[in-house]
């Protein structure tokens, strides 16, 4: 009995997560913009406070646009699957594989579930029911695998979500402190108080959890390692894909600095950096592939 077949059902349930994300954005938008800082901007005569409200609203919308752009790009970008034409001279014995031809990438793998060749750093996802190029993990938040072709977009989604939620926590904190006095005096409507508390608590929870997640992925990025490959690295042996922090960063974000903070790649990077396609990866020259 293959229990992993049940995992494919998680992909269907995952689409409700998209609605959850949209709901979270809507609650935060109502609490920060509609309920708190927009009234200050249009009703307050104090120039400094109005300027602060204008700045907060502008930054909020900028981060929101970048968050949603990165999020939906990560959701709808295929992380990469093994192409049909990907074949080498191979000798397959049972579930093991020996490569007859090599291009410096070492022995190729073989997936007994897909019954197909696996390029280097490729792993089978039990939820997607396919092999994913440079698979990091299957993320329920984007209802997709995180792999070679959408890892950058996923990291940007984490970054902009962290910055957005951190901004929400900071700008809602004064109102949250006043919440208890307003509740006692009944000076605010129940809906306003509920949205404020809900938005503040949710954003604070996301800030703390995202901080841990970002630190973990920065560590992986700096060594050119995926979440799956952490378990493959042995002892003190230097990871063969670790090219140094700068090159490791470029293997994911590209070399064009103007595109680093945008959820897209330049044509030159897509053409020249083979790792972005997920089929071939440069290795350290001082380590045998």
From TrEMBL:
Which UniProt keywords are listed?
Acyltransferase, Membrane, Transferase, Transmembrane, Transmembrane helix
Please provide, in alphabetical order, the Gene Ontology terms of the cellular component aspect for this entry.
endomembrane system
Q: How does it sit in the membrane?
A: Multi-pass membrane protein
Compartment(s) where it occurs, according to its Swiss-Prot or TrEMBL record = Endomembrane system
> Which reactions are catalysed by this chain?
L-cysteinyl-[protein] + hexadecanoyl-CoA = S-hexadecanoyl-L-cysteinyl-[protein] + CoA
Instruction: Provide the transmembrane region boundaries.
Output: 12-37, 49-72, 153-173, 193-218
The cross-references to InterPro entries, in alphabetical order and at most eight, read: Palmitoyltrfase_DHHC, PFA4/ZDH16/20/ERF2-like
Q: Output the Gene Ontology terms for molecular function.
A: protein-cysteine S-palmitoyltransferase activity
Query: Per the database record, which ranges form the Palmitoyltransferase DHHC domain?
Result: 109-232
Q: Which EC number(s) does the record attach to this protein?
A: 2.3.1.225
Keyword Hydrolase applies:
no
Task: Work out whether the entry's keyword set contains Membrane.
Answer: yes
Its domain comment says:
The DHHC domain is required for palmitoyltransferase activity.
Regarding protein family, the annotation reads: Belongs to the DHHC palmitoyltransferase family.
Q: What is this protein called?
A: S-acyltransferase
Q: What is the lineage of its organism?
A: Eukaryota, Viridiplantae, Streptophyta, Embryophyta, Tracheophyta
């Amino acid at each position: 009995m293959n229990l992993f077949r049940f995992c494919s059902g998680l992909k269907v349930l995952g689409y409700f997560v998209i609605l959850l994300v949209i709901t979270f954005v809507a609650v935060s938008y109502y609490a920060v913009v509609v309920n708190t800082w927009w009234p200050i901007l249009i009703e307050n005569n104090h120039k400094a406070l109005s300027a602060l409200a204008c700045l907060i609203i502008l930054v909020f919308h900028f981060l929101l646009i970048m968050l949603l752009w990165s999020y939906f790009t990560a959701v709808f970008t295929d992380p990469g699957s093994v192409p049909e034409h990907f074949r080498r001279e191979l000798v397959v014995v049972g579930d093991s594989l020996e490569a007859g031809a090599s291009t410096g990438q070492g022995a190729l793998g073989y997936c007994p579930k897909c019954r197909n060749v696996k390029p280097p750093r490729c792993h089978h996802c039990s939820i997607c029911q396919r092999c994913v190029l440079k698979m990091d993990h299957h993320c329920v938040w984007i209802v997709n695998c995180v792999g070679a072709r959408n890892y950058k977009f996923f990291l940007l989604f984490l970054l902009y979500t962290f910055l957005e939620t951190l901004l929400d926590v900071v700008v809602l904190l004064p109102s949250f402190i006043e919440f208890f006095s307003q509740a006692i005096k009944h000076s605010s409507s129940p809906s306003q108080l509920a949205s404020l508390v809900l938005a503040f608590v949710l954003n604070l929870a996301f800030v703390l959890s995202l901080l841990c997640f970002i630190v973990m992925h920065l560590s992986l990025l700096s060594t050119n390692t995926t979440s799956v490959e952490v378990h493959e690295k042995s002892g003190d042996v230097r990871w063969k894909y670790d090219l140094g922090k700068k090159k490791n960063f470029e293997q994911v974000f590209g070399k064009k600095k103007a595109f680093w903070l945008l959820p897209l790649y330049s044509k030159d990077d897509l053409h020249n950096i083979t790792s972005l396609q997920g089929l071939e990866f440069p290795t350290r020259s001082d380590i045998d592939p």
